[in-house]
Amino acid sequence: AGSSFGRGARWPLSTSLYGALRSALLAEAGALPSRTRPGARRKGVPDGQIGTDAFQWLHVHGPFPVRENRLYFPRPADLVRVDKAKAMERMLPIAERRGKNNLPRPLRYCVASFASPSKEERPIRWVDHEFYKAYLAGERLGLPEDPELWDSERRIGVAIDPNTRTAKEGQLYVAEHLRLREGVALRFAASDPPKHKARHPEERDLTVASLCGRTVSVGGEGRFARVELVREPFLLPGVDCVGRCVKWVLLSPAIFAHGWLPGWIEENSGKVLLRSVEKESRREFRRRRREDPDWSYRDEADPAERITAHLVAACLGKPEPLGGWDLLYRKDPEAVGSGGAKATLLSVSAGSVYYFEAADEREAQKLVSALHGRCRSDFLGEKGLGLGVCGSWRLAKEE
After folding, report:
1. What is the 3-state secondary structure (H, E, C) of 316-371?
2. How far apart are CA 304 and CA 285, in angstroms?
3. pLDDT digits (tens, 9 = 90+) for 266-322
4. Is the pTM for the entire model greater than 0.70?
């Protein structure tokens, strides 16, 4: 059916996990929507279309592979093998921007590799929790073992004519599927409903823990997974950041307002536009934003402290396309059908690294609090996109 081969065997996205859990909760509550209605209120006005308000509180982190209680995360993009004989790895040096280059305007430093050119793909794409902690702390790293978490299966299928639902003559396709190896599971964390307000009446007091022991459908291929409760806490890798240089590493893809550049970064100067926010004190601020039709944001009236820091460098992986299928999509609200395709978006891939310089150590700690373990994607953050962790970095010494 086509001349190119698509690589479809990739790790499930957090958006797929979110959809699977919320759909399972809605089905359990008997609240699966049949059509859309006006969506959540923004500035007092309904925005977009939505099926139901039930279980809107759901947020997820993950999924990440786990085997024998060892949790794995995407390999950071700024690691390079520097000596094949010793099989050692180190972080790419960050150096002053010099001479002619095509770095985007906000960036001040280059993240460059001095390893020999090679077309070999990096075979190890996942590293365990302990390796990640050593990486964030800037320790000397050995080459991690390949965890071999899954196998890739290629299956041949026959193209189907959508009108007749019969096979198209002479058209075959190859699909690539991911099969987890024995003992490998998908680990994730999910939020509990908020306690400061009443539950939606359709939710019947259900939580994600209510799905334990049940089988849910995950992803567009309709694969099944069994939900089990894990007693051990879900801990992201983290270290005590020192100094005023902070690196932020994505554990899940992110969709940003300016392509590779987050919307909370000023495009020309690289200034961080985030503020140091206490969640509880911000609740009333968010409520007014949703419900007051005359509400407008005034920077000078925002009581939250600014964060004095700038984005100065970045090391990014290849963009990752994200799409999907919306079962409730209708061009005509009264039409009956099987939905429509969601817009395809390019995301910044997991493992990408952003480097910041803060005004001082106090500002650096405020930045860490705003980024570490938070989903900072400009879009679909509630579905787990843009989850990242923080570490420290330093500028390469002059030769």
Report:
1. CCCCEEECCEECCCCCCCCCCCCCEECCCEEEECCCCEEEEEECCHHHHHHHHHHH
2. 11
3. 999 999 999 988 777 777 777 777 777 777 777 777 778 899 999 999 999 889 888
4. yes
